[in-house]
Amino acid sequence: xxxxxxxxLNALIPSEYVRNYVLEMGWVFTDxxxxxxxxxxxxxxxxQCSRLQALQxxxxxxxxKERIAKYLNGEDLKLQAFKENSDKTCIYILEVKKKITHIRxxxxxxxxxxxxxxxxxxxxQTCLS
Length: 129
What we know:
Structural class: alpha+beta
Largest sheet: 2 strands, antiparallel
Shape: globular
Oligomer: single chain
Strand order of the largest sheet: 1-2
Order of helices and strands: HHHHHEEEE
């Protein structure tokens, strides 16, 4: 149980100093506080959404379940709009350095990419996020 709690804290709180303080104080976050920390944290969008879905499944708070569903739906819509780029407002830049392909993207909406993949000259793929 303690390892699970520490893993959860690592995802919720980027600062080691603050995590240690929370552990020392014995602070336990409510489900709503966890959701806020996940949404405003620095996890990849994929991990953030995965953790929010798990929280949504396990919380007894119906209002929070609905708000998480609405948030996740909004993130899905933004990601789909980003991928489709039908209004041509997103700019994609492809750079090749040291035989590794890097993809950068700019979009005026405040969203995160799910993942960025690198492929070397031999076709080996590596996920960065």
